[in-house]
Amino acid sequence: MSKPPNANLTLKFAHGFRSFDTRGNLKYTLSPNHIVFTTAGLGVIMNINNRTQEFSNIHKEDIVSMALHPDGNLVATGQMAGKDLNE
Prior knowledge:
- This protein has strands at residues 26-28, 34-39, 42-47, 52-56, 63-68, 75-79.
- By secondary structure, the chain is mostly beta strands.
- It has a domain at 26-79.
- The strands form 2 sheets. Strands 1-2-3-4 form a 4-stranded antiparallel beta sheet, with no helix packed on it. A two-stranded antiparallel ribbon has the order 5-6.
- Strand 3 and strand 4 form a beta hairpin.
- 9% of the residues are buried.
């Protein structure tokens, strides 16, 4: 029987944006040169100058809503209803 590889994966860059059933899930922050957006269950903070990304991976389902606080530095996200109602 084969053994799994002795390696770990690290997320470097998120490609794509969920837009077919959501609106307003991409915003400019008040931090210079930063945007926030969602793709699947991932929140992404992107520096548009050097094209680096930071990630928030706390959701178990796809993110379908996002709001940016008026201070421009706090983001709230909401996910789809879970498939398991006991979660």
